[in-house]
Amino acid sequence: MKRKKLVIIGSGPAGYTAAIYAARACLEPVLFEGFYSGLPGGQLMSTTDVENYPGFPEAVTGPEMMKMFKKQALKFGTHCLLEDVKLVDLKQRPFLVEGMKTSFHADSIIISTGATAKRLDIPGTHDDELWQKGVSACAVCDGALPIFRDKDLYVVGGGDSAMEEALFLTKYAKKVHIVHRRGEFRASKIMAERVLKHHKIEVLWDSTVDSVSGKDYVEHVTILNLKTEAKTKRHAGGLFFAVGHVPNVQFLNGQLPLTPNGYLMVKPGTTETEIPGVFAAGDVQDFVYRQAITAAGTGCMAALEAERYLASIGLDE
């Protein structure tokens, strides 16, 4: 079995950026891009126009951006594998990284497997329907797009994330409607108060979204009142899920400590995990920002920290 100085697990902005920095440092990284467990390139592969990443004033599609990231990583010598990692063993040294077809011993590992946005099973919102055609799971990523401006927008959720998404959307929407299945929010008191006082936000209590419809983009949502069982069809320009994310850490089998909400725990201000030589970058450890640029930033940090770690044990050359 081949031994590598650095193996990066997961692509997307964090993984590819880590690979660029590591390859330029002559660490000859191997990057497992994923395949069945998630799209190579991460969540941006299902995103249309990216308008908030510096350097792209005319916007760029998520897939096109990830294509450029990968091309740059390959240019400097990254070895990319289009396969999933099914298990790692962090108890042995060097570490064992076992892919679906390829396995390595690794002196250091960067985990950048991201997080998957939760989506409810609502007719009209699926991948082959109106997903990314007015249905989104990230208001900060997509809310400023022209298709959402001056429209009635709907946010599904009742926690702090839903409050933040709704407040952000008020900058662009005609009106924001929060659909919540209970009679009170789960959000913190201060966030709930901000929402309830906002003149552009309406809360639909004790309700769910029954379906979403439209020809090419979202045009209507049907709201089901859970108390009266009445259904109301409303005009809509977009629907945003704000029901949380699931970090992609299952393959680790509990070998690294997690935060209370399930993300990989890192030492503050670093990407270092509890195990020396193992680093975590991007949305797999970030439950606050969850942006492409912050993921790329932590990818850079992880590569630099891995380089320093390898130098400290005499394996940087």
Note down, in words, how this protein is organized.
By secondary structure, the chain is α/β, with parallel strands linked by helices. It folds into two domains: 3-116 and 245-312, 3-Layer(bba) Sandwich (FAD/NAD(P)-binding domain), CATH 3.50.50; 119-241, FAD/NAD(P)-binding domain (3-Layer(bba) Sandwich). It has helices spanning 12-24, 62-75, 139-142, 160-169, 189-197, 292-312, and strands at residues 3-9, 30-32, 49-50, 60-61, 79-81, 85-89, 95-99, 103-111, 115-117, 135-136, 152-156, 175-179, 201-204, 207-213, 220-225, 231-235, 238-241, 245-247, 278-280. Strands 1, 2, 5, 6, 7, 8 and 19 form a seven-stranded mixed sheet that branches. Helix 1 packs parallel to helix 2 (62-75), helix 1 (12-24) packs parallel to helix 6 (292-312) and helix 4 runs parallel beside helix 5. The protein is elongated and about 65 Å long. The model has no long low-confidence stretch (mean pLDDT 93).
* Major sheet description: 7 strands, mixed
Which regions contain 5 or more consecutive residues with pLDDT less than 50?
none
* Structure class: alpha/beta
What is the CATH superfamily label of the largest domain? FAD/NAD(P)-binding domain
Shape: elongated
CATH architecture assignment of the largest domain: 3-Layer(bba) Sandwich
**Helix proportion range:** 10-25%
Got a strand count?
19
